[in-house]
Backbone:
């Protein structure tokens, strides 16, 4: 059984208003142009009173359509920045949720890997400072729930690593934006900005 | 997107209004001379705008390029809206 009254959020209402305004503006523009351009060919006898009346109706109709398009266009200009701000906030929320879920998953994997042996993490602090490079890399601390403090930038670091690996393999930016970042079509320019920001972040952090 | 619809609406309103005057002059012979004098007035106004372009652009608060753009758009609307309604 369907609900009698659907309570929608302001964001949804704003989007609905925007699509309604777009629909009205498009319909009025197209019908106005058709009315104005077709009437001279369809109703061209000035002796016939009916045709004259219809011709005037079509001209007044196209005038009304023009005014409607202007009003809808003005309203759209007011609404568009709000809708863009909502979309940006939603995308940021999504990225944050993605990073949190990846962090939680990584934590679970570390715990699963440590569970059979229950071995203690090797403390790097007790390693001598003048040890060669090779030995320090082999003695990386095993991450546990205590010492594996993964910050929020960990997600971006792993993303940057995979993106730079793909770039080294000669994969084009377009393919990375569309298939890795999932920003294709109308969101391509946003994806390009995200990719540039990610690469800049990688350079500044020296990952 | 909004700007596009505003411009389309302005264009549509302009050609419809000019078309109305033009068709009135075409359909009613008694009003034809008014249509003629209306077109003469429009032509004189355009001429005045072309002569005093700097002064009018400054008075309207537009730069010269914007003023010329509006002039070209107005002439295009007058020609389109006026001539098309005379098609037999």
Residues:
């Amino acid at each position: 059984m369907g609900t009698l009254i659907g309570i929608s959020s302001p964001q949804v209402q704003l989007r609905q208003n925007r699509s309604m305004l777009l629909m009205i503006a498009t319909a009025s523009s197209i019908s106005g142009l058709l009315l104005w351009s077709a009437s001279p060919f369809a109703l061209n006898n000035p002796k016939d009173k009916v045709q004259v009346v219809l011709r005037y109706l079509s001209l007044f109709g196209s005038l009304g359509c023009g005014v409607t398009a202007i009003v809808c266009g003005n309203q759209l200009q007011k609404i568009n920045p709000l809708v863009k701000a909502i979309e940006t906030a939603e995308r940021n929320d999504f990225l944050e949720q993605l990073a949190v879920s990846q962090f939680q998953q990584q934590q679970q994997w570390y715990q699963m890997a440590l569970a059979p042996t229950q071995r203690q993490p090797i403390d790097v602090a007790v390693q001598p400072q003048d040890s060669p490079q090779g030995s320090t890399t082999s003695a990386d601390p095993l991450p546990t729930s205590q010492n594996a403090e993964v910050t929020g930038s960990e997600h971006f670091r792993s993303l940057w690593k995979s993106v730079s690996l793909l770039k080294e393999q000669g994969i084009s930016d377009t393919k990375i934006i569309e298939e890795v970042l999932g920003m294709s079509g109308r969101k391509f320019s946003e994806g390009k900005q995200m990719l540039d920001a990610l690469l800049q972040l990688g350079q500044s952090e020296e990952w | 997107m909004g700007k596009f619809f505003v411009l389309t609406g302005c264009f549509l309103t302009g050609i419809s209004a000019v078309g109305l005057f033009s068709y009135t002059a075409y359909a009613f012979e008694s009003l034809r001379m008014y249509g003629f004098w209306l077109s003469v007035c429009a032509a004189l106004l355009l001429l005045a705008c072309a002569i005093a372009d700097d002064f009018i652009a400054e008075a309207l608060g537009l730069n010269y390029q914007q003023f010329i753009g509006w002039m070209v758009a107005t002439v295009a609307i007058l020609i389109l809206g006026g001539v098309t309604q005379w098609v037999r």
The mean pLDDT of chain B is 85.
